[in-house]
Amino acid sequence: SQKEKDEIIAQITNLDQEIHQVESKIKNLQKKQDQLEKETAKPQEEKRESPELNQSEPKHQSIAQIIYAENRRKAEEAHKMLSKMGPKIDLPLYHQPSDTAIYQENKQKFAVFKNRLILHLKKRHQARRIREKYLTERYDQLMQAWLKKIERIENNAKRKAKEAKSREFYEKLFPEIKKAREDRERFQSRVGTRGSIAGYARTDAELEQIVDGLNEQEEEEKKMRSFSVIPPMMLDSHQRKMKFINNNGLLEDPMFEYKESQALIKWTETEKQIFKEKYLQHPKNFVLIASCLQKKSVPEVIQFYYQSKKKENYKQLLRKQNMKKRRPFKVSYT
Length: 334
What we know:
Layout: H1 2-40, H2 44-56, H3 63-83, H4 101-154, H5 157-173, H6 175-190, H7 197-200, H8 204-227, H9 237-241, H10 254-264, H11 269-281, H12 286-291, H13 298-312, H14 314-326
């Protein structure tokens, strides 16, 4: 019966999980065994040195003191290794960088070089300011010329007649556009400046409406000015020469990389069959499915699912399986 099948499947799943747990324990024990074998294979001198160092240190120490002591011990071992490679050097070499001869030499050179450096930076800064001033003035000239050109195009009689004709056509189709335009023109004709509001407003409500409209316009203008980005100046010839070639993530031979990655992740027919069976039992429970596959991790299982989902059509297989479960038993009468 279906109930017995489900029980058997659950028992198989539990057994797979237990097998996986036992295998992981065996791996951990093997790692510990390898570590112990490495420790036993160490030379006897290293084993003798460590307890002597531990005995010389006080028992009650803070974490910082323990770290300092360990660092001192490692530094001493490193110095012992290097002492065989050359003449003996008295340590420390210096307490502060200013104690060294090269530091004092660099300081004297800089005192001679300082005035030339300041003069060079001043000249470069002055040249940059002259260039920026020229670019700003040139931009303003071109901007004014462009605005005059746009104004001349917009004030063209043919263009205005064409715009009036198209506006009339659209306002007939959409009366709300005409109403919005008339309201806007009426508001602009009433309010020339902020000081003449009271003369045009007939009621307090209308005055309040006009003031709110003006405040809204001012806020919108402030917002636009704050959000607008000032474009940077054009780069000079020296700055244009500076380039950065980013080779991060560069693949000189992508096909080789792809083939190598595919070769690392190979699925046997048995593993594919186990994946399909476990997926039908536990859809998209990739952690559990990976626990049933000894040589596959969870990311590899997820990758295999997305690579094979169109070919295998797991949704259709799940649908068929669910239909089998829902199908009622036929009772035959003899």
